[in-house]
Specification:
The protein has one domain: Rossmann fold (3-Layer(aba) Sandwich), CATH 3.40.50.300. A hairpin with a 5-residue loop joins β3 and β4. The radius of gyration is 17 Å and the shape is globular. The protein has 231 residues and is an alpha/beta fold. It starts with 10 loop residues before the first strand and ends with a helix. It binds 2'-deoxycytidine-5'-monophosphate. The site of 2'-deoxycytidine-5'-monophosphate (DC) has 14 residues, from α2, α4 and α8. 2'-deoxycytidine-5'-monophosphate binds next to α2, α4 and α8.
C-alpha cells in the first residue's frame, strides 16, 4: 500500500480562557505526537515584560508596536522537552509568569498593531506545519485552516485554583479570591477587545476540563488527532 503524502505536518489550534489547562494539555499532546508546541500567550507576555523593563506605557499601542518591531521573541524546546522563551536572546520563561505580567499582559494584547505583528509571526512559525499552537484566536483568526481545533474551558473556580497552584510552584503566594478577580478581569478584556477576541471557532472540539484529570484531557485530544491522521 502506498503511503499518503502529506504536504505539511499536522496543524492544531488550541484556544480557551486563562487557566483552562490549555498549555499543560497542549504540551503533553505535542510531545506524544512529536509536534512542536507554540505558546502564543508567551509572545504577548514577552512583549509585556520588555515594556515594563523599558517603562513603555502599555496603553500606548503605537509605542508597543514600535517596541515589538525591535524585539526578537523565540519559542524553543530544550533537549529535555521543556518549552523556553528567549526575549532578545535571554531566557525569560519564569519571569513571564509573574503577577506583574499577569496583571498587564491583557492590556498589551489589546492593541491592533501589536496583534497584527504577532499574528504575522505566528503564521510564519506554523508554515511548515507539525505544530500545536496555543492561544485565544488561533482557530478563529491565526490559523483558520488548522487541521484540528480544540477549545478548552473550565469553571472560574477551577481555573483560579490551577493558576494558584502554578504560581505556588513558582514561589508566589496569591489569594484565591484575588486570582478569581484577576481571571474574571482578564476574561473581560480578552473576550471584549475589538480585534480578534477570545472566541470559540464554529468547528472547534470543545472540552470542559473542570473535573477531568489532565491525562484524560490529553487522551481525548490525542485520539482526535490520530483519527484525523488516519483520514
Ligand atoms: O495564555 P496566557 O495567559 O499566557 O495569555 C496571556 C495573554 O495574552 C492573555 O491576556 C491573552 C493574550 N493572548 C491573546 O490575546 N492572543 C493569543 N493568541 C494568546 C494570548
Amino acid at each position: 500500500m502506498t503511503q499518503m503524502v502529506r504536504p505539511r505536518g499536522l496543524v492544531i489550534a488550541v484556544d480557551g480562557p486563562a487557566g483552562a489547562g490549555k498549555s499543560t494539555a497542549a504540551q503533553a499532546m505535542a510531545a506524544m505526537l512529536g509536534l512542536l508546541y507554540l505558546d502564543t500567550g508567551a509572545m504577548y507576555r514577552a512583549l509585556a515584560l520588555k515594556a515594563l523593563r523599558r517603562d513603555v506605557d502599555v496603553c500606548d499601542g503605537a509605542a508597543l508596536a514600535a517596541l515589538l518591531a525591535d524585539t526578537a521573541i523565540v519559542l524553543q524546546r530544550t533537549d529535555d522537552g521543556r518549552s523556553q522563551v528567549l526575549l532578545d536572546g535571554d531566557e525569560v520563561s519564569a519571569q513571564l509568569r509573574s503577577p506583574e505580567i499577569n496583571a498587564t499582559v491583557a492590556e498589551v494584547a489589546r492593541h491592533r498593531a501589536v496583534r497584527e505583528e504577532m499574528v504575522r509571526r505566528q503564521r510564519t512559525l506554523a508554515v511548515a506545519g507539525g505544530v500545536v499552537m496555543d492561544g485565544r484566536d488561533i482557530g478563529t483568526h491565526v490559523l483558520p485552516d488548522a487541521d484540528l481545533k480544540f477549545y478548552l474551558t473550565a469553571s472560574l473556580d477551577a481555573r483560579a485554583r490551577r493558576r494558584q497552584a502554578d504560581l505556588a510552584q513558582l514561589g508566589y503566594t496569591v489569594r484565591f479570591e484575588q486570582l478569581r478577580e484577576e481571571i474574571l478581569q482578564r476574561d473581560f478584556v480578552d473576550a471584549g477587545r475589538p480585534h480578534h477576541p477570545l472566541q470559540q471557532a464554529a468547528d472547534a472540539i470543545v472540552i470542559d476540563t473542570t473535573s477531568q484529570e489532565v491525562s484524560r484531557v490529553v487522551e481525548q485530544m490525542v485520539a482526535r488527532c490520530r483519527q484525523r491522521l488516519a483520514r
